[in-house]
Predict the 3D structure of the following.
Amino acid sequence: MKIDLIEIWEFMEIAPAPQGPAQGKHWQYELVAGDIRIPNLSTADILILKEANLYDTELLPSIFTFREILWQPNVYPQPSLCIPQLNILKVFCEEYIADQEENEKAWFYTHLMQGLSRYCNRAIERINESKETDDVRIASILGELRKQAFPVIKFFISHPLNHSGHQTDALHRLNYAVKIMLTQYNSHYQDLLDPYWNITITDSGTVTPSDKTTETTPISQAAAQ
């Protein structure tokens, strides 16, 4: 069963325990954010998202400070000029991950930030590979990065512990980013994937944090799901 990201709270509140042949089993969840998949989640794992001490409410506005890379119109006359900002965003993600290294419950956020860091690295590699051939354009580089980052950013915008002002501001910027992606970066609405939950019924048992490994799916395959 697939449900929208923010509908998880209503589902957990009103959904009965599995009945009939599935009685004695429990719900199992998987977060899907573009090509990032975090499987083997229990109800207790989802509730971690509401633990205020685990979520940095400044993370969302901090992500949007990388405006030239993530949401504003293109300011780079050639792709190589955006490498410094891509590196800064990549380092920002890596520093966040390092800061959370001792926090065993922060894997939701670290997995997603690992994905954002990976997208930056891919963009840098594409630029470096094309320097001699000059066969890549900034619309292709940043367009792909923004398309990949969209579900990750949408996850953080939908987080239940956001300050309302931060959330409203981020939504305005994301809507503007979508407009830019459609008009300047050759994207289509169907390219922009909302994060969601896959819900299944599974046998009772304990799932450890190490079982919640991040899986990645090619973007083209993720779009088809």
About this structure: The first strand starts at residue 2 and ends at 4. The chain has nine helices and five strands. The mean pLDDT is 87. Strands lie at 2-4, 26-33, 36-41, 196-202, 215-216.
